[in-house]
Amino acid sequence: MKLGDMEVKNRFVHSATYECMARETGEVTDELVKRYRVLAKGEVGLVIPGYLYVHPLGRAARYQTGIYADYMIPGLQRMVDAVHQEGGKIAFQLVHAGRQTTKGLIGQTPMGPSGKGRDPINFFKPREMSEDEIQEVIQAFGKAAKRAVEARADGVQIHAGHGYLINQFLSPFFNHREDDWGGSDENRFRFLQEVVSETKRAVPGGMPILVKLNTHDHTPREGITPSLAVKYAGWLANSGIDGLEVSCGTILYCFVNMSRGEVPVNELVKSLPLWKRPLGRLMMKSWIGKYDLEEGYNLETAKMIKPVLRAIPLFLVGGLRRVMQIEEVLEKRYADFISMSRPFIREPDIVKKIKEGKVGAVSCVSCNRCFAAVVNNMPVGCYNKGFPIG
């Protein structure tokens, strides 16, 4: 299937996954290059690396890959070349953390569309972005897209989910503005619309522009819901994007809505300061059993969104584990591409195994210890057997 002018050799997509493998300055390392070479060698049709932050104030994690400065381009080219050498395609996911970061990472109070609401993990209140800051971030997405072109990437994906800045503008839970950037669905959508337009100006015609969108924020009070996601998806279709990936959940408000499965409490608690651990343990223990893996847990909303996209391809991520289920999703045209994250961590060659008829399901058990590892600043990997708690 084609995305813009790019032809993808099969329907499997590596959904962007934080690797915790970049330098603290955001530069690409040999470990990142190796990871994506292995995935492309395993015949993943389209590789989308972990979220690349477009502005120094948009950094979400310590070892996150950056694309905010020109000196990063050579490292990004190495990653692209490794995928191309193995016959794969690669699209860079662009992101700004907004309020979903810490002062320790960016050197100042994180900002968002509104200054209301205290962060539930780090206990700070964000500051409201000014008009100039909004315009600066929109331009930062465009500049990052231009760097992706210079790095020879095949496409870009704009991250509008999981509680990061664009999601914050889209969500009534986070966005309390009453100006042109909030107060109505149309105004809340404006920020994403401007980012898409700026990105289109930065890339050559035919280079695919993809978007990742939340179908449900799962925030304490109503944010993006499936019906609002359908409305946004229709507007995105009219904006001329080349593909839409649907996901759900907000990192700071119970990540297991996004990554259904086990809650590795002991490993997750290790990432917290000592004074936070008792409360953190109690909170995370309350999650156990509430977010067990459901196969295709974004499928029903995908079925709602597919008609409004018309001919624009839909990517489905979330709990797809059995080959028969994957085939059904594609044959019934509920989605056009199958995105996976955790299964590729455990089996980077799973596409090749499926192609050769060697397996009927992936072996990932959704233990979520890979997620616990990266929040402890450990490189992403399959830690199903656990790791030292200390």
Q: Which sequence of SSEs, written as H and E, runs from N to C?
A: EEEHEEHEHEEHEHHEHEHHHEHEHHH
In CATH terms, the superfamily is Aldolase class I
Shape: globular
The low-pLDDT segments are: none
Q: How many H/I helical runs?
A: 14
Helix residue percentage: 25-40%
CATH class: Alpha Beta
Could you name the key traits of this structure?
14 helices, TIM Barrel, alpha/beta, 8-stranded parallel barrel, two-stranded antiparallel ribbon, 390 residues
List the helices and strands and how they pair.
Blueprint: E1 2-3, E2 6-7, E3 12-14, H1 30-41, E4 46-47, E5 52-53, H2 73-85, E6 89-95, H3 103-106, E7 111-112, E8 127-128, H4 131-150, E9 155-160, H5 165-170, H6 185-202, E10 209-214, H7 226-239, E11 243-247, H8 265-269, H9 277-285, H10 299-309, E12 314-316, H11 323-331, E13 337-340, H12 342-346, H13 350-355, H14 369-375
Summary, kept brief:
The chain is 36% helix and 12% strand. The protein has 14 helices and 13 strands.
Detailed description of the structure:
There is one protein chain. This protein has 390 residues and is α/β, with parallel strands linked by helices. It has a single domain, classed as Alpha-Beta Barrel (TIM Barrel), CATH 3.20.20.70. It has 14 helices and 13 strands. The chain has helices spanning 30-41, 73-85, 103-106, 131-150, 165-170, 185-202, 226-239, 265-269, 277-285, 299-309, 323-331, 342-346, 350-355, 369-375; strands at residues 2-3, 6-7, 12-14, 46-47, 52-53, 89-95, 111-112, 127-128, 155-160, 209-214, 243-247, 314-316, 337-340. It has an eight-stranded parallel barrel, surrounded by six helices. Helix 1 (30-41) runs parallel beside helix 2 (73-85) and helix 7 packs parallel to helix 10. The longest helix has 20 residues, at 131-150. It is globular, with a radius of gyration of 19 Å.
